[in-house]
Amino acid sequence: MSATVKVAVAGAGAWGRNHLRVLHGLGALAGAVEVCEASRERVRKDYPGLPVWGSLAEALRHGASVDGIVIATPAPTHADLASQALRAGRGVLVEKPMTLEAGEAQRLVDHADAAGRTLMVGHLLLYQPAVTELKRVIDSGILGRVHRIHQERTNLGRVRSTESALWSLAPHDVAVLIHLMGEAPLQVSAAGAAFLQPGIHDDVHLELAFSGGRSAHVHVTWYWPGRRRGLRVLGERGMLVYDEADQSLTLHRKRLQGGSLEAVDEGSVRVFEGPGEPLRLEDEHFLHCLATGSTPMSDGRSGLDVIRVLERADAQLLAALPPTLKEA
Ligand SMILES: NC(=O)c1ccc[n+]([C@@H]2O[C@H](COP(=O)([O-])OP(=O)(O)OC[C@H]3O[C@@H](n4cnc5c(N)ncnc54)[C@H](O)[C@@H]3O)[C@@H](O)[C@H]2O)c1
Question: Are strands 248-256 and 29-33 parallel, antiparallel or unpaired?
Fold first, then answer.
């Protein structure tokens, strides 16, 4: 990994601190940007001597050696901060969700193209070795035709007040679906419930249609008794289960026989298991793209595809709210 490329992290909150740790470990951390004084103090204590700025504008003015910015601030700030960094000639890794509107995501893609700079989105799951293997197994044809994919991301918390469970949790799943299906969905429909905060959905179901009659279902919620994260691929000749808890892939040689639709069960086998270090792989990929100018796997265009899906789904969720909540 090129240690000559240096990046700063904007946002030293719960997630930004992970980027700080990983990038410091990679010898690529040039500084931190944080608006909160207490958080700035903590970064100074954790990384003595590291430049810590109070605004991105300051970092872009003074951080001459900063090649890229990791944006790990709250979602509503992403579009503005990413745009500032691109305009200042820096590459950007913006956390998910890339933006809260497709128009903003499109503008970032256009800025990055015009400036010839890297624009990457933090779709962490795409950097999980188990997901790389999942894609390889699907593409190998072992499952035959993929009929349907089911995904779930449930837990108790963390509830956000600036974005719904759809915007907070589903970007990962939608990004993985688009990656596995090899295209953006043709149709999106959404249903859900907002019961903790007015107009902010806590529990969301998405139904997505892809070409060739393929489809997918996504369930995300932050109000659930237990943490369940993973997906099931239902194929013509078998099924594949990805469990995020232990990063395992299990191939079930189960199907309904063509014609008679008789159930066939030829057993199950674990085909992959391994602790992933997706954030390190993601940050290394960002540094590599900055150093070489190559296009990130989760580039701005793929981020835009995800935002388009979320935007369409959100419009349906909001339209279905009772009139009193719509006005809230
Ligand atoms: N990829 C993942 O798996 C993953 C996981 C968790 C969070 N995230 C994403 O990371 C982002 C941050 O989430 P979090 O949980 O760390 O939030 P957080 O609220 O804990 O931290 C955000 C930090 O950004 C700072 N901040 C706000 N505006 C700023 C600005 N203009 N400039 C600099 N700093 C600013 C805040 O003071 C805070 O310290 C969100 O977009 C979230 O969706 C991604």
Answer: unpaired
CA distance 56 to 72: 12
Do 167 and 194 share a domain, yes or no?
yes
Check whether 2 has a pLDDT greater than 50: no
- Measured CA to CA in angstroms, residue 259 lies from 14, 255, 256, 294 at distances of 53, 12, 9, 48
Share of the chain above pLDDT 70, in %: 98
The two tokens of residue 127 are: 């950097």
Please tell me the predicted confidence (pLDDT) of residue 325. 64
Q: How many domains does the chain have?
A: 2
Q: What CATH number is associated with residue 29?
A: 3.40.50.720
Based on the fold, state whether residues 267 and 189 are members of the same structural domain: yes
Residue at 161: amino acid letter: S
List, as one string, the DSSP characters of 76-118: GGHHHHHHHHHHTT-EEEEESSS-SSHHHHHHHHHHHHHHT--
Closest of 99, 49, 319 to residue 199, by C-alpha: 319
Residue carrying structure tokens 């040039």 = 30
Whether 145 has a pLDDT exceeding 70, the answer reads: yes
12 and 116 in a single domain? The answer is yes
Q: 189 is in which domain, residue-wise? A: 126-277+310-327
Q: Which residues have CB under 6 Å of ligand 1?
A: 10-16, 33-36, 39, 56, 72-75, 77, 81, 95-96, 122, 124, 168
65 with 166, same domain: the answer is no
Q: 13 alpha carbon to ligand 1 midpoint, in Å? A: 5
